[in-house]
Amino acid sequence: MTNILSVRNLSKTYQSGHGSLAVLRDINFDVEEGSTTAIVGPSGSGKTTLLGLCAGLDRASGGSIVLNQQNLNELNEDERSLLRNQYVGFIFQNFQLLPTLTALENVMVPLELQQASNVKKRAMDLLEKVGLSERASHYPMQLSGGEQQRVSLARAFSNAPKILFADEPTGNLDAETGARVEKLLFDLNQEAGTTLILVTHDLELASKTQRIIHMKGGKLLENEG
Ligand SMILES: Nc1ncnc2c1ncn2[C@@H]1O[C@H](COP(=O)(O)OP(=O)(O)O)[C@@H](O)[C@H]1O
Ligand SMILES: [Mg+2]
């Protein structure tokens, strides 16, 4: 099997006025293409930081990440955003929708960056998939947390990513909407072969993935390689 992600001796340190804070220390793991993985651990253990580094959103302090056969250390800012736009989907813990754009326009952004055709229709189809056709012209602040979560999902799906990172994708949702989001994620894995890496507090959700990685204090507890 091919690894779509390889993390070696990864570390991340934040500098502050009082010195440096080591948030991730010596992280090592591989993820097979097409697999599903959950990352679990206490709040503050570094899950969001790890996800962001793996997706190329931020730079590591040490070690290496190879994503889709490309070493992120060797890419500049532009090359990393191209890689993200082509292969990576990311669902943020706090959605990060653009407040001045409608739901539809938010989903259109990655497609427009790709200079895709039929952008509007494709974005509408994605909104329909997450059950939000009627909300297409609403702005993020006019939507509930769960609805924003689903717009964020539609946006993350829009470039048909090879790998999807989801940071607590059901964290803000009621049980019914959570189940719906969960189904969308696993369907994408089953139907399109999208590799799924999700951070969650929900152990029931985690148990549905093929593998669980436990984090504590910036380290992996179970280093399965
Ligand atoms: N930009 C930042 N600057 C300084 N410290 C940060 C920054 N982002 C996160 N941290 C710190 O890193 C630690 C891990 O945060 P995070 O990755 O968000 O953990 P988790 O997602 O597991 O709750 C926390 O102590 C947090 O305060
Ligand atoms: Mg987090």
From TrEMBL:
The keyword ATP-binding applies. SMART domains: AAA. One of its GO terms (molecular function) is ATP binding. Keywords: ATP-binding, Nucleotide-binding, Transport. It comes from the Bacteria. Pfam families: ABC_tran (PF00005). InterPro entries: AAA+_ATPase, ABC_transporter-like_ATP-bd, ABC_transporter-like_CS, ABC_transpr_LolD-like, MacB-like_ATP-bd, P-loop_NTPase. Residues 5-225 form the ABC transporter domain. This is ABC transporter ATP-binding protein.
